[in-house]
Amino acid sequence: MRIILLGPPGSGKGTQSSFISEYYKISHLSTGDILRSEVNKGSDLGISAKKYMEVGDLIPDELMIKAINNKILNLSTGFLLDGFPRTLNQAQSLDTLLINKNKPIDKVVCLKVNKDEIISRLLSRAICNSCGNNYNLLSSPPKQKGKCDSCGGDIITRSDDNKEAISNRLQIYEEMTSPVINYYDSGKRCFFVTASDEPQNVFETIRKLLDK
Ligand code: ADP
Ligand code: ZN
């Protein structure tokens, strides 16, 4: 199975991606996680990406496409893309890459959450510095303060989870990623899921869609 998970920042893509990739035994590729790890390593890609990420801007298509193409091609399993594609250009380049390999995307799932909820989720969000696990410091904090439940890594707040960067990320989602949704929707590949419910219930809805 080859799927794409779309949705605004804070819609729960990370959480749902973990559920989906575990359940269907497919690889989870998160461009946000990949880029954050490059930033931590201080690689050339990380150094170039950092200034865009901090303010919530997209990194340039050319850089992003180059960084992800080989990872996709090297996979021997099905996959779930989380955070990619985010521009029409990225979506078209992905289709070309996959159609040439005879491995088209099966389904695109698009998460929907209202703006107020997104902002409140992001302002109380924290992540594990090592494994990327998501926490909500108000509703689902880690059992031991500051430590990840699954790997013991340090829990940090993302540098782009502040008011200014959040507002920029939401605006960019509207401007740059809405055309991606229209692109897949016009090809009848897009399925919309309301994601303001409990994560487990959202996953149940997604599972039914994917099993169809
Ligand atoms: P969000 O919580 O905003 O959905 P992600 O963790 O998916 O964030 O991505 C964090 C940042 O990484 C983005 O704000 C952007 O700077 C960069 N990034 C991730 N994916 C892409 C992409 N497909 N194209 C360009 N930039 C990206
Ligand atoms: Zn962890």
Largest sheet: 5 strands, parallel
- SS content category: alpha/beta
Mean pLDDT score: 94
| CATH homologous superfamily assignment of one domain | P-loop containing nucleotide triphosphate hydrolases
Task: Sketch the topology as an H/E string, one letter per element.
Answer: EHEHHHEHEHEEEHEH
CATH architecture of one domain: 3-Layer(aba) Sandwich
Structure notes:
This protein has 212 residues and is an alpha/beta fold. 50% of the residues lie in helices and 16% in strands. It is built from eight helices and eight strands. It has helices at 13-24, 31-41, 44-55, 61-73, 88-100, 115-123, 163-186, 199-211; strands at 2-6, 27-30, 79-82, 107-112, 125-128, 134-136, 155-156, 190-194. Strands 2-3-1-4-8 form a five-stranded parallel sheet, with helices on both faces. Helix 4 packs parallel to helix 5. The two termini are 12 Å apart. The model has no long low-confidence stretch (mean pLDDT 94). The structure holds adenosine-5'-diphosphate and zinc ion. The site of adenosine-5'-diphosphate has 18 residues, from helix 2 and helix 3.
